[in-house]
Give the backbone structure.
Amino acid sequence: MAKHVTVRQLVMEKGVLKGKDLAEVLDLLAMTELGVPGRRK
């Protein structure tokens, strides 16, 4: 059965990530900027 929830809601509901960790993973700017993922400037 399909649920209409956001990725953020689903991840929190399942207890996969919370707080700062979730915010960091779902950071739109970090996901769309050029460079190697995981490397900070």
Notes: The CA atoms of residues 7 and 35 lie 24 Å apart.
